[in-house]
Amino acid sequence: MRIRVLLAAFVVCSVSACGGEQPAVETTEPPPVEPATEGAATAAEPQQPALESDDSPAGTGIIAAGSEFGDMLYDDSGQAIYLFDVESDGEPLCYEQCALAWPPVLTEGEPVGADGVVTELLGTVERTDGATQVTYNDWPLYFYAAEEPWEVKCHNVFGFGGLWLVVTPEGEAAPH
């Protein structure tokens, strides 16, 4: 068990300094770990819009807010949301070490959208472990494990076999 914890920590640390302005290239060495205070894109902390609700159990809240890449999706706590470009068929492929670095956006109820989010594009997909992952325009959604709220470090970054890109409110990858 201790070896698994150490391996998980190594994987997260080895990809923790993506850098938002790097070209999409794969390296054989992990980038150096740097504090996120400089060089990382951060969005101004916008006022969180009220989420739509009904009588069903509330699921994960998704909001749209600005970033240096334009308007993009965040969860209701300000975590940046990404898509993995190799998942164009809507089926999650990021598991094990990939999911340690890129945790899926999970929900226990129907996801809830706020102003700026096209609620018709929100959906879910079942993961192989039985968890329910939020989708947007049929893209399974992910966080980056080494980011703070309102921080965007890994747009247009290659890892685990594909590009990681922030998601626009229109349901597409932001330009890269």
TrEMBL record:
Entry annotated with the keyword Signal: yes
Signal recorded as keyword: yes
Pfam families: Lipoprotein_15 (PF03640)
Gene Ontology biological-process entries: alkane catabolic process
Disordered: annotated segments: 21-59
Start-end of Low complexity biased regions: 35-51
Alphabetized UniProt keyword annotations: Signal
Signal peptide residue numbers: 1-17
Superkingdom per UniProt: Bacteria
PANTHER family per the UniProt record, alphabetical: BLL4220 PROTEIN (PTHR39335:SF1)
Protein's recorded name: Lipoprotein
